[in-house]
Design brief:
2 strands; binds phenylalanine; 444 residues; globular; 1% strand; two-stranded antiparallel sheet; mainly alpha; 78% helix
Length: 444
């Protein structure tokens, strides 16, 4: 029997921070602000908050409940509750995490590189062309791209190898509070710039005519991605839950922290972007090109830029850790590897797979499927197909097949009013599958 079978989180707060660490990632700090920008500010933010606190939070509970009721890796937990077909879906969840990790780690590497540059004072410059060229040169340079990916992956696998409590929980307890404090600091700086109000306006100014089907669909998709749903992360974290931890309130906290961080990221970035007259819709280049440019024009900008990349790295790291843990838990339980060996195996193979993604920006950029290089292809397949499919399996398992166990799990510690239970069951049985199907269809 592997040692991790008896592992439990040290404290409820440690578990909540680890779960929030998984949720808060590049999705919150990088995607959310520019999507909110692109889709008309609050016309995107309001549906996003709505989806998070209805279907999102219900699915978070469903995953945690399945993990604790099934007490196994995602594969054995889902099999125990739903039979062999759900074991397969659990396996797909593990595979999804594995693939996401491979390309997420490449972007994590960029965060490490930008942090180093910022610390060395070599990052901020007011020349936009130079910044764009630097970023282009980094992603196209195989040696650099692969080396930074390796450094990021070493950190992620290293933490997981240390264990659930001594590694994941401990680091989350230090890093997440630090992340919030740093974000508040940068937000303070950003909001006190001349012209900052335009950024606020851009984020929160609501107009009905901006509310389009596209903005609503994308808000749904981001809810999914930013809560790390559908790839059995929270099933795995649920496996380590104490019997005495209340699932609904924990899920509420995780969802709240995820939303709060997204909004804080918007407040940290957009006012500064507007104050400095930059384009809020810069898209993917926003954090690697626009941000250094913005900081170059702000007093003490170099220091704030370094803090910003600390935030970005912390967010990416705690998410990557959760991806590694899903696969480690699987290898420990199903292949009976030790935690250290499992981490090492992932380290080596993800180094190779991630390197292929890294190369797809440079020498392998000619290899495309449907116009997408490998990096984009993997991201597309994972976020638009595999995660929603995993989410659908979770919703069916918790809402239909093992509904009684789901209800027992969520009311195990605290007795919630019958109306709350009914709503949650309804959300998992009906709302979540509909939402997931819509995400799937809109993704395709
Ligand atoms: N939630 C993470 C983010 O916002 C992304 C992620 C997805 C992490 C799936 C783990 C699993 O960046």
């Amino acid at each position: 029997m592997s040692h991790s079978k008896t592992t439990e989180w040290g404290s409820r707060i440690g578990f909540i921070l680890a779960g929030a660490g998984s949720a808060i990632g590049l999705g919150a700090i990088w995607k959310f602000p520019f999507w909110a920008g692109t889709y008309g500010g609050s016309a995107f933010i309001i549906p996003y908050i709505f989806f998070t606190f209805t279907i999102g939070v219900a699915l978070v509970m469903a995953e945690l409940a399945i993990g604790r009721a099934g007490r196994g890796s995602a594969v054995s937990a889902m099999k125990r509750l739903g039979g062999p077909a759900f074991a397969v879906m659990g396996g797909i969840g593990v595979l999804t995490s594995y693939i996401i990790l491979s390309y997420y780690s490449v972007v994590g590497g960029w965060c490490v590189k930008y942090l180093f540059d910022a610390l060395g004072g070599n990052l901020v410059t007011s020349d936009p062309k130079l910044l764009a060229d630097n970023f282009g040169a980094l992603v196209a340079d195989p040696a650099a791209n692969i080396s930074w990916h390796l450094i990021f992956l070493t950190l992620s696998c290293g933490v997981v190898a240390m264990g659930v409590v001594a590694g994941i929980e401990r680091i989350s307890k230090y890093l997440l509070p630090m992340l919030f404090v740093l974000m508040l600091l940068i937000t303070g700086r950003s909001l006190t710039l001349d012209g900052a109000m335009q950024g606020i306006d851009f984020l929160f100014n609501f107009s009905f005519n901006k509310l389009t089907l596209e903005s609503v669909m994308n808000a749904m998709g981001l809810t999914f991605f930013s809560l790390s749903l559908g790839c059995t992360i929270l099933v795995t974290y649920g496996l380590y839950l104490k019997d005495s931890t209340d699932i609904p309130s924990s899920a509420g906290w995780i969802s709240y922290l995820a939303i709060q961080t997204g909004i804080l990221a918007g407040l940290m970035i957009m006012p500064a972007v507007f104050a400095m007259g930059q384009d809020p819709k810069a898209g993917p280049g926003l954090v690697f090109i626009t941000i250094p440019l913005v900081f170059s024009q702000i007093p003490f900008g170099a220091a704030f830029a370094a803090l910003f990349y600390v935030c970005l790295l912390v967010a990416a790291l705690t998410s990557a850790i959760s991806l590694v843990e899903v696969v480690v838990a699987y290898l420990c339980h199903e292949w009976h590897l030790s935690r250290k060996r499992a981490s090492l195996l992932i380290y080596i193979t993800i180094f190779l797979l991630g390197s292929a993604s890294a190369l797809s920006f440079g020498p392998w950029s000619g290899w495309t499927v449907g116009g997408k290089i490998l990096f984009d292809l993997l991201d597309y397949v994972c976020t638009n197909i595999m995660m929603p499919a995993g989410g659908l399996a979770i919703a069916i398992l918790a809402g239909w097949i093992a509904r009684d166990k789901f209800r027992a799990q969520i009311s195990q510690v605290r007795k919630y009013p019958e109306g709350v239970l009914r709503f949650l069951t309804f959300a998992v049985r009906y709302l979540a599958p509909v939402m997931v199907l819509l995400v799937l269809i809109s993704g395709l």
